[in-house]
């Protein structure tokens, strides 16, 4: 280790930034084919569920999945354990 090593930028931050950018790009590419109405639909479904059950924002997942020639709307809701809320 030389005396000037502290002046060199650390490569770990560059690698971390590169990895984060790759994740963001992958998410953007996967959402490009998704319909525009999915975020609004997800919010509305969450609002209706919250009228009856207290759930987190991340509890509702809405995706469109290809099944052969058809697009299938896949809705997944993680409900809290009834015993935990009692």
Automatic annotation (TrEMBL):
BP-aspect Gene Ontology terms: cell division; regulation of division septum assembly
Keyword annotations from UniProtKB, A to Z: Cell cycle, Cell division
GO molecular function terms noted in the UniProt entry: identical protein binding
Stored SUPFAM superfamilies: Cell division protein MinE topological specificity domain (SSF55229)
Pfam families linked to this entry: MinE
Tagged with keyword Zinc-finger: no
Function (record text): Prevents the cell division inhibition by proteins MinC and MinD at internal division sites while permitting inhibition at polar sites. This ensures cell division at the proper site by restricting the formation of a division septum at the midpoint of the long axis of the cell.
The family this protein is said to belong to: Belongs to the MinE family.
Protein name in the entry: Cell division topological specificity factor
Protein species of origin: Thermomonas carbonis
Phylogenetic placement of the source organism: Bacteria, Pseudomonadati, Pseudomonadota, Gammaproteobacteria, Lysobacterales
């Amino acid at each position: 280790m030389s005396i000037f090593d502290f002046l060199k930028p650390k490569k770990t931050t560059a690698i971390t930034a590169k990895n984060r950018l790759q994740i963001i790009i992958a998410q953007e590419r996967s959402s490009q084919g998704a319909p525009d109405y999915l975020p609004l639909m997800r919010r509305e479904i969450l609002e209706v569920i919250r009228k009856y059950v207290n759930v987190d924002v991340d509890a509702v997942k809405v995706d469109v999945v290809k099944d052969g020639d058809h697009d299938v709307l896949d809705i997944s809701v993680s409900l809290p354990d009834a015993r935990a809320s009692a």
